[in-house]
Amino acid sequence: MSGWIDLDGWKHREHYEHFRAFANPFFSVCVDVDVTELWGRSREPGGPSFVLGTLHAAVLAADPVEAMRRRMRGDRVWLHDHVGVSTTVLRDDETFGYARISHAGEFHDFAPAARNRLDDARRVRGLPLPAGDDVLYHSTLRWLRFTSFSNALPTGDSIPRLVFGRCVADGDRTIMPVALEVHHAVVHGLDVARFYEQFQSRLNAAAL
Questions:
Q1: pLDDT tens, residue by residue, 156-173
Q2: How far is Cα 15 from Cα 176, in angstroms, rounded to an integer?
Q3: Which long-range contacts (CB under 8 A, 24 or more apart) does 63-69 make?
Q4: DSSP readout, 40-90?
Q5: Got the DSSP string for 151-172?
Q6: With b meaning 16 or more CB within 10 Å and e meaning fewer, what string describes 6-38?
Q7: Where are the domains of the chain?
Q8: Residue 155 has what pLDDT?
Q9: Angle, to 10 degrees, between the axis of helix 50-62 and the axis of helix 107-123?
Q10: Eight-class DSSP state of 8
Q11: Structural contact between residues 80 and 71, judged by C-beta atoms closer than 8 angstroms
Q12: CB-based contacts of 190: which residues, under 8 Å, 6+ apart?
């Protein structure tokens, strides 16, 4: 159930108090993930969208990793049941907007709604900002195979940031760099490792 975390009884209380006072409490990890299965399926006639498949895998990967669903609100911490994704969308004029896509357990529910949100974001002018913190922030830098990444970060924000890079061949595999930037007061190294493990598992299954 969504709700406030009881900080008095929380095993991470001291870590939370320690890192939330830092001038730069975020840390970033970049990992190559294997997207061979989804990449191949997306190129079959009638296959799933690679973009939507990776976004859906990321949303589902956050479900079993509680830390990815924690959000700082003032001096308290809220825990969401599920999170969706807020992703950047490149427009024809080379500006970008944001599309907020809700959580869905099944790809056949996620994909149609996601396409509608992406189309809406391409049509809108200006930069309307997505509401709510029950999301992962996401962007794609599909032109570059990067090995590290850092985001522009506002004060008081604890939403995890995901960035996907250029897919490249590595022998008989296709790999994609994925950067994850998180607030250390609510997400720790083991949580990041577990998220990548879940993400890779979803990509391997590619049950779309």
A1: 899 999 999 999 999 999
A2: 32
A3: 63/198, 64/194, 64/198, 65/191, 65/194, 65/195, 65/198, 66/191, 67/182, 67/186, 67/187, 67/188, 67/191, 68/136, 68/160, 68/182, 68/187, 68/191, 68/195
A4: HHHTSTTPPPHHHHHHHHHHHHHTT-GGGGEEEETTEEEE-S--EEEEEEE
A5: ----TT----EEEE---EEETT
A6: eeeeeebeeebeebbeeeebbbebbbebebbbb
A7: 3-205
A8: 80
A9: 110
A10: G
A11: yes
A12: none
* Paired tokens of 7: 């900080």
Topology at the third CATH level for domain 3-205: Chloramphenicol Acetyltransferase (3.30.559)
Q: Above 90 in pLDDT, residue 130?
A: no
The sheet with strand 3-4 has its strands ordered as 3-4, 76-79, 70-73
Cα dist from 205 to 8, 39, 189, 201, 202, whole Å: 40, 12, 25, 6, 5
Over the stretch 107-119, which tens digit does the pLDDT of each residue have? 999 999 999 999 9
Whether 206 has a pLDDT exceeding 70, the answer reads: no
Q: Which residues of 49-68 are buried (b: 16+ CB within 10 A; e: fewer)?
A: bbbbbbbbbbbbbbbebebb
Residue 67 and residue 112: Cα distance in Å, rounded?
A: 28
Token pair 């990992």 is at which residue?
Answer: 31
CB neighbours of residue 181 within 10 Å: 21
Q: How far is CA 197 from the centre of its chain?
A: 14
